[in-house]
Design brief:
This protein is of the alpha+beta class. A hairpin with an 8-residue loop joins strand 9 and strand 10.
Length: 225
């Protein structure tokens, strides 16, 4: 079995557990899934750990590392129309076409989520956003399914100002990392359409954080491209 102990996502998980006051007695790998370059993608582990209260942690954890979700709002500078930049893609969990915000795993970039966020928006939609245009929507990453996974998500928002021509060219654009069986169809959605069509809690949470942050306001900052 290839070494996994120096993988950043694994070491970050170890540090979190120890930092919570738990004592790790043993960690046994049950299955390690790797990317084509040998990097750890997911790891399923059997854990023997004592809690500060004198009990035991549940035995199993899937280490997958953190991720980021980006909530971009596109503003048509000619008409004032505002829609959310999203993608439709099929997921193995349900086989269906799912409406999602651009998102991606941090993998080994554990300390630089905002750079990963910009890369994911471009990879999945073809739209370029700078670091300066991305704003954190929460003061810390939020866990997704903490009973089994270590994954916590950084949420970012941005507003992008476009011409009518640029705005209309987005719908139906195909992007994504073909080498990872990722086929993203770009689409623009209003808040009402998003809430009606989304089945992912990440999408609903992303929208909620975006609106809570004040980005729903016309006065919120935006970037011109």
């Amino acid at each position: 079995m290839q070494d996994y102990t120096n993988e950043p996502k694994y070491r970050e998980w170890l540090a979190r557990v120890a930092g919570s006051g738990c004592a790790l007695n043993a960690v046994t790998p049950l299955n390690l899934l790797r990317k084509s370059n040998g990097e750890l993608l997911f790891g399923l582990f059997d854990v023997d750990a004592d809690t500060p209260e004198g009990g035991k942690l549940p035995r199993y954890v899937m280490v997958r590392g953190n991720a980021c979700v980006i909530v971009p709002q596109i503003v048509n500078r000619d008409t004032g129309e505002r829609k959310f930049l999203m993608v439709l893609q099929r997921r193995t969990g349900n086989g269906a076409m799912n409406l999602e915000f651009p998102a991606g795993m941090l993998d080994r970039n554990t300390t630089d989520p905002i750079t990963v966020a910009g890369h994911e928006v471009f990879e999945e939609t073809g739209v370029t956003v700078s670091r300066q245009s991305l704003y954190p929507l929460h003061d810390r990453p939020l866990y997704t399914s903490i009973g089994l996974q270590d994954e916590a998500i950084y949420f970012y928002g941005c507003r992008i100002d476009m011409t009518e021509e640029e705005f209309t060219r987005l719908e139906g654009r195909v992007a994504g990392a073909a080498g990872e069986n990722e086929r993203c169809v770009v689409t623009l959605k209003t808040r009402e359409e998003l809430l009606r069509e989304a089945v992912s809690c990440q999408v609903v949470l992303g929208l909620t954080l975006f609106l809570r942050h004040g980005f729903g306001d016309a006065s919120a900052p935006f970037v011109q491209i």
